[in-house]
Amino acid sequence: MKQHNILASAIVAVVMAAALIIPDSASAQLKGLGRKDLQQHDLSIPGREAVQVLVDFKPGVTAPKHSHPGEEIIYVTEGVLEYRLEGKASVTLKTGDVLFIPYGVKHEVKNVGNVEAKELATYIVEKGKPLVVLAK
């Protein structure tokens, strides 16, 4: 039974992560969203790990509303991105700007510029949990 739960959790994690980078026939806007995993390491804090990802957005593309099982630290490396965090006013960041997203806060991101935009996302998250949890 335990192995079944672990396998089911792993499948759900892969599907959720893929939903952010793989086109879906029901949501053509995801076609222009890409992700490159850079590194993943255990931390000295038990049960926590650091994950770094480079995410690229074609013009007009939105990453759907989601959350993470930990903190997210954003650094915009190219372009202009609009972040909409639940309970906060939207914020527009350009190259060189940074943003901190607290644990579990639902958010979405849109490339509001005319060229490809990229962010370096650093996560401090609970180890073993899906990195991305799509909002319902």
Describe this structure in words.
The chain is mainly β. It has one domain (2-134): Jelly Rolls. The chain has 1 helix and 10 strands. The strands form 2 sheets. It has a 5-stranded antiparallel beta sheet with strand order 1-2-9-4-7, with no helix packed on it. The protein has a 5-stranded antiparallel beta sheet with strand order 6-5-8-3-10, covered by helices on one side. Strand 5 and strand 6 (91-94) form a beta hairpin. It starts with a helix and ends with a strand. Residues 54-120 form the Cupin type-2 domain. Keywords: Dioxygenase, Oxidoreductase. This is Quercetin dioxygenase-like cupin family protein. One of its GO terms (molecular function) is dioxygenase activity.
**Architecture (CATH level 2) name:** Sandwich
For CATH, the homologous superfamily is named as: Jelly Rolls
Radius of gyration: 15 Å
Q: In whole angstroms, how far apart are the ends? A: 27 Å
Percent helix, as a range, is 10-25%
Low confidence ranges? 2-29
Structural class: mainly beta
Question: What is the CATH class designation?
Answer: Mainly Beta
Count of beta strands: 10
Number of helices: 1
Give the strand order of the largest sheet, numbering strands 1, 2, ... along the chain: 1-2-9-4-7
Whole-number tally of structural domains: 1
At the fold tier of CATH, the topology name is Jelly Rolls
Mean pLDDT: 84
Main sheet overview = 5 strands, antiparallel
Provide the succession of SSEs.
HEEEEEEEEEE
Coarse morphology: globular
Tell me what portion of residues adopts beta-strand conformation. over 45%
GO molecular function: dioxygenase activity
Keywords: Dioxygenase, Oxidoreductase
Protein name: Quercetin dioxygenase-like cupin family protein
InterPro entries: Cupin_2 (IPR013096), RmlC-like_jellyroll (IPR014710), RmlC_Cupin_sf (IPR011051)
